[in-house]
Amino acid sequence: MRTVCAYSLWFPRAEAAADIWREIATWIAQWYRSALPHLDMPAGWERGLSERFVPDRDHALECACSRDGDHGPLRELRWRFPDAGDPTLLWTTDAAVLAGEGTWCTLRLRIASADFELLPARVQFRPPRVIRTLLGRGDAHVGVHRVGVRPIAIDPDGVPEMTELMLEQSRRHPFVVVSPEAYTDDVYATDPATLAIALAGLASVYVLTSRWAAFALTEEIGKQYSCYNGAVRIYWPRFDLETDPFGHPLWLPPQIADFAGDDSFARFLLRMLAGAASFRFVEPEAIRAFRGRVENARIAKLRADASTNYDALFDEYARLDAHARELREQRDALAAENEALRAELASRWVPPTDARGENRSVAIDDRPEPTNVREAVEEARRRTSHLIFLDDAIASAHESPYKQPDRVCSALLAIDDVARRWADQLAGGPKLGSRRDAFRQRGFEYKEDISQTAEGKWGDEYTYAYEGRRIVFAPHITIGAKSPDRCLSIHMHWDEAKRKVVIAHVGRHKTNTKS
């Protein structure tokens, strides 16, 4: 019997156990109402009050409820039914719910053939509806991290928090990051909502809301680990900035398009994550400890009764011997299954190559990697159409010791993007809104003015010659803080006649009351 997928969830309240078990029972009852509408479910089946229930041929349903003193209860269920497309394939679902320090819930789906037949098992696995129902409660966790059923939108301000979670070594489930396609903020190579539904309970899906969020992620973790230009990437647990980047697979838009539909790509990722979940599934320690206590209590009672009830002891020995043989057979089958899963996981993803056979899964962004601020400004000049650079901007960039030139290039691209939208507004297009909000959406803090004190005392520092007159370039963006190698300012002027933004300074923070 092969495990197809497994789920392990934790909920912070012990009182949730009854509701979670009720959801599982309702899920099965509704399934039978649809598949076998004339079936009468025996009263109390979900509480373990009925004998093993056989609804139809090749169907079986049994429940049990056990306690260990003040602990528990542990509710368990085993449900077997034939596959809808191939009745010779039998599904088995094992569920367990334990109340303790919170509530643990596990669900494991396995499949086996009813007869030997050399025929491929063409099954379409989909996540059980009950998993989405449980995640919809809003308090489900995998390990210590909350999981949900909807994609999580990440703007530039949210990237640091997401990155912190990605690097958290206590994380026990994958993050799937979806980025917008190049130079768009609302076009994705695949539907994030479809991914989130398919991967519910197995991964958290994060959606970068704009290229600026993608730029921010690159600045946080570096290009080789980032995800941008329409790519989708899995960040497995144990991710850090020294790991092999190819261990966290990435798909480019052309590769995603080869799947011919959002649903096909989602099913592909589901098979990958379900295989990992099947191989790694272990019952939570709380459930294993509970089973151990119940078994120890049963053995103690057996020993107490042994001196007066030899027949019962012999029957128990025969039962345990048969059970041990069954467990050995299961162990051997699981060992073979694990080897097969190892081989499947190892071959599931191969880094894509270009026509020359070189790996191209990481270097998907054509943005340059400037080595200093001057190169960043020169690259921005080549790539922007709504900016005018004064010679003073080039001179200040040449003198700047700022150590993150790629961040400078991103800031200038953001200014160009806001300038383009501003020019469209002046031409009668959609309103830009406040410039401050526009820049904040792109991950930068913009200020329209300098203080009156700074202008009064050091106004010449902010004044530049442009179009035959002296103008105070007060609007600015400041990146970083403190020393010049970690702080840089960009000062600009909004030229309404030309509908362009003039850049006069890209370099050291200018003098003000805090300098």
Explain what you see:
With 515 residues, the protein is of the alpha+beta class. The chain is 38% helix and 22% strand.
List keywords for this structure.
alpha+beta; five-stranded antiparallel beta sheet; 19 strands; 515 residues
Beta-strand proportion: 15-25%
Distance between the termini: 71 Å
Specify Rg, calculated over alpha carbons: 31 Å
The major pleated sheet works out as: 5 strands, antiparallel
Quick check: average pLDDT?
A: 88
> Low-confidence stretches at least 5 residues in length (pLDDT < 50)?
352-365
Number of strands: 19
Helix share, percent: 25-40%
* Sheet/helix structural class: alpha+beta
Determine the number of helices (DSSP H or I, runs of at least 4 residues).
Answer: 14
Within the largest sheet, what's the order of strands?
1-5-4-3-2
Shape: elongated
Brief summary:
The chain is of the alpha+beta class. Helix content is 38%, strand content 22%. The protein is elongated and about 110 Å long.
Please specify the SSE layout and strand pairing.
Elements: E1 2-11, H1 16-35, E2 60-68, E3 71-82, E4 89-100, E5 102-113, H2 129-135, E6 141-142, E7 145-146, E8 152-154, H3 159-167, E9 175-178, H4 192-198, E10 204-208, H5 211-221, E11 232-235, E12 250-251, H6 253-257, H7 262-280, H8 285-306, H9 310-348, H10 373-383, E13 387-389, H11 391-399, H12 405-426, H13 435-441, E14 446-447, H14 452-458, E15 463-466, E16 469-472, E17 476-480, E18 487-495, E19 500-507
Parallel strand pairs: 8-10, 9-10, 13-19
Antiparallel strand pairs: 1-5, 2-3, 3-4, 4-5, 6-7, 9-11, 11-12, 14-17, 15-16, 17-18, 18-19
